[in-house]
C-alpha cells in the first residue's frame, strides 16, 4: 500500500488545475503569454516536490523543496496578474489562489523544518 504524502498529492492536483486553466485561457481568450508562464511555474511545483522526495541527499531534498516554494510564489504572482487584468473572475481566482496559498504554506513549513 502506497503511503500518502500530502504535498505530493496536493501539488499534483494543483498541476492538473493549472493545466486546465491554461487550456481555458487559450481557448477562451487566446491568451498565451501569462498563461504559459503560469503553466510553467504551476506545474513545476509538483515536479520539484517529486524530485525532492527522490533526492539523493538531504541537500538535494532541501534544494528541490526550496525551488518548489519559489515556483509556488511565482504561481501566486501570475494568478494575481490574470485576476487583475480580468482574465479570471473573482470566484475563479479565489478558488485556485486558495489552493496555491495552501501549497505555499506547506512548502514553507517543510523548508523551515528542514533548516540545519
Please state the oligomeric state of the protein chains shown: single chain
Question: Percent helix among the residues?
Answer: over 70%
From the helix content, strand content and strand pairing, which structural class follows?
Answer: mainly alpha
Radius of gyration equals: 15 Å
Describe the structure.
With 116 residues, the chain is an all-alpha fold. The protein is built from four helices and no strands. The protein has helices spanning 6-29, 34-53, 58-84, 90-113. Helix 2 packs antiparallel against helix 3 and helix 3 (58-84) runs antiparallel to helix 4 (90-113). The longest helix has 27 residues, at 58-84. The radius of gyration is 15 Å and the shape is elongated. The mean pLDDT is 95.
How are the SSEs placed, and which strands pair?
Elements (H helix, E strand, L loop, with lengths): L5 H24 L4 H20 L4 H27 L5 H24 L3
Amino acid at each position: 500500500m502506497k503511503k500518502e504524502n500530502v504535498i505530493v498529492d496536493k501539488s499534483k492536483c494543483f498541476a492538473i488545475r493549472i493545466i486546465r486553466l491554461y487550456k481555458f485561457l487559450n481557448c477562451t481568450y487566446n491568451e498565451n503569454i501569462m498563461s504559459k508562464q503560469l503553466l510553467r511555474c504551476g506545474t513545476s511545483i509538483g515536479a520539484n516536490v517529486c524530485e525532492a522526495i527522490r533526492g539523493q541527499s538531504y541537500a538535494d531534498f532541501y534544494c528541490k523543496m526550496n525551488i518548489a516554494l519559489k515556483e509556488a510564489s511565482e504561481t501566486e504572482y501570475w494568478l494575481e496578474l490574470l485576476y487583475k487584468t480580468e482574465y479570471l473572475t473573482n470566484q475563479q481566482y479565489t478558488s485556485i489562489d486558495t489552493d496555491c496559498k495552501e501549497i505555499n504554506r506547506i512548502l514553507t513549513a517543510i523548508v523551515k523544518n528542514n533548516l540545519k
